[in-house]
Amino acid sequence: METLWLALLTVLVMGYFALAGFDYGTGLLLPFVRRAEAMRRMTPFFLGNEVWLVASVGVLFAAFPRLEGELLSGAHQVFTLVLGGLVLFMASVQLRLWHGLVFAGALMVSCGWGLFVAHLSGTPWFIWVVVMPMLFALHGWAFQTRRRPAFLLTALACALPVPIAFSSHSVAGLMAHPDTLAMLSWVAIPILPLVVILQWSIVAISSR
Amino acid sequence: MDTLDLARLQFAVTTSFHFLFVLLTLGLVTLIVVMQTRFTLTRAPVHERMTKFWGRIYVINYALGIVTGVVMEFQFGLNWSGLASYAGDVFGAPLALETLVAFFLESTFLGLWIFGWGRLNRWVHLALIWLTALTAYASAFWIMAANGFLQHPVGYEERDGVLRLVDFGALLTNPTFGTALTHVVFAALTTGGVFVTGVSAYHFIKCTGEVEFFRRSLRLGVVVTAVATPFLIGAGFGQFPIIGTYQPHKEDAAPWLGVPLGFMILIGMSLLLASWAAVPLLFRDWVIRMRFPLYLMVIGIPLPFCAAIFGWLFREIGRQPWLVYGLLRTEDAVSHVSAASMTTSLVVFSSMFLLLAVTDWALIARAVRSGPETTPRPIAPLVVSL
Question: Where does this polypeptide localize (chain B) (predicted)?
């Protein structure tokens, strides 16, 4: 049961970075590409991508209650940056505000996640605040130019840092009781494939 | 102010702003369900235009509201880590169900509805708005179940210093849950009704010419308000015996706590009286021809929002000094974070939320002023853009 929830959390977190990664990448590339076209390509994916984060944090709270508080409050300022960036990025993308705001939001979010990787892994922060935005930008480029094989590689590159940095932490004793997990898994397990199918159909419909 | 005060202030500010978006989302989606169902059944163009116009306002509000929701969700872990570690096994369950079953699905159905406009079979498209509405209500259901637990903890067992969930059903039969949920749902319906009424009245005041369109909208808004307010007030007063049993000292939590409660009741009663007075005046459109009620309808738009914030202040401040009533004190649940960090996040989130609310208001006002579309647009009509 515990392995299952760890797997579910990993899938959601990787899904978030692989999907939202190209949103942030698109944001980072905006000053250098044709903006209207880049934004138009991203639009059908945008909302669907960001909700993976919400689902990840929901699972983190319910299944790993004693980890969630430690993890988040231990990096309070980093998350202030990530969330501030998210608010700016999401609002400015959805309202088609000035592209500088979209860029700033994407930069804040990607640097924030870089700092979080550094915080988790104990590696120097100045490496990650450069590496993370570069990974996202590369992923955004692969998405925008529709290079399928490259896209899969960059997706993986964006998805891996946080789970790998996290894997050195032990979750023993931090998880919710097996009974709670068992009850929740009846709900959580069917939802994930359903959401994937529905999100896929949004993309399929909007490209028709 | 110390970390605790700052964290409490941050929660109060962000939750209040978040709830303004929630109220309008829940209220409007219900009215849009009615409009689109009528359109699908009758194929009358006026219902289609109504669905589009009000749907557009709904989508603007949802798109910005979702941003406040993301911050809300993180906030429990960021500022109240003691709540997760002590009561997370119980409190986390309804919260996770909300994110997975309700929110994750709701936003996906809504996405399909937005991008499926004109591209999907009309019955499938109708089913999508129904599903969006149902999952939105499911959100309210699980959040209120979680909040009900904080007001009166049930279904748990304390072992090794942490709570364990032993009876999930008890969370759903919790006396502080059902009546409060009913109250919130009818508050949202009232907000939707008052909003649609007020906006329609604005167009009659400005004589914009869309008579048939806004006549139907206004009637729908008035009827929804008139139907919702008795239940709203009933479920409101229905909570006093429950509070008397489980939180007898609620009003002692702060000396001024009766003030917001009083204002909320006053607003609720006024809306009940006004909507019931307006129903007979719908006959032969007297309410529109008399004109002065139209001004009252516009002035009334902010009232349900104010009342809802007052209501939450009473419910949440009245629970103090407890976070989980009788089990966990608020001061013991706050994260070990420096006051400086807490101040930074308070300033960042409060200013951004204020900006979001102002933007939401400005965009909605703009959509309202430009009125319903006269020529269909080439792209999906509901994608939010300036």
Answer: Cell membrane
Is B92's CB within 8 Å of A65's CB? yes
Q: Which residue of A has its CA nearest to B342?
A: A76
**Is B376 inside any structural domain?**
no
Q: For residue B162, give the 3-state DSSP assignment.
A: strand
CA distance B187 to A62: 29
Can you tell me which residue has the tokens 């307010």?
B229
- Whether residue B380 is contained in a domain is answered as no
Helix (H) or strand (E) holding B156: strand B156-159
Q: Is residue B385 part of a domain?
A: no
Residue spans of alpha helices (H) in A64-124: 65-73, 76-94, 99-121
Is residue A195 less than 8 Å (CB to CB) from chain B? Answer: yes
- In this complex, is the C-beta atom of A23 within 8 Å of any C-beta atom belonging to chain B? no
Residues 224-263 of B with CB under 8 A from A: none
* Check: complex ipTM more than 0.95: no
Domain coverage including residue B332: 3-370
Q: Can you give the length of chain A in residues?
A: 208
Q: For residue B381, tell me if it sits in a domain.
A: no
Range 167-186 of B in CB contact (< 8 A) with A: 168
B347 touches chain A (CB under 8 A): no
B85 close to A65: Cβ distance less than 8 angstroms: yes
